[in-house]
Design goal:
With 88 residues, this protein is an all-alpha fold. The protein is built from three helices and no strands.
Length: 88
């Protein structure tokens, strides 16, 4: 806790962390849970491939306009990550 009983930003209570630790193994043990875990893993893999392609487009595009558009798209994709601090 911070001054005056306020929570510090970026810190979660232990009660909020525990269900995530318990739900993961339970989902992986059930047949429907395996399907859900594989679906999430496939979505993360597709996201990473798209992110890599856009990053390469931002780095190696032939024109400045294409580089700028790719950089903006990359910034929007990175905002989906909770701990990413967007540039100002």
């Amino acid at each position: 806790m911070g001054i005056g009983g306020q929570r510090r930003p970026g810190r979660r209570a232990r009660a909020a962390v525990l269900p995530g630790c318990v739900i993961g193994p339970v989902l992986a043990a059930l047949p429907a849970g395996r399907t859900a875990v594989l679906t999430v893993a496939a979505a993360v893999l597709v996201y990473l491939v798209v992110l890599a392609a856009v990053a390469l487009g931002a780095a190696f595009a032939r024109t400045g306009a294409t580089r700028q558009a790719s950089a903006r798209t990359l910034d929007l994709l990175l905002r989906l990550i909770p701990w990413y601090a967007p540039k100002r």
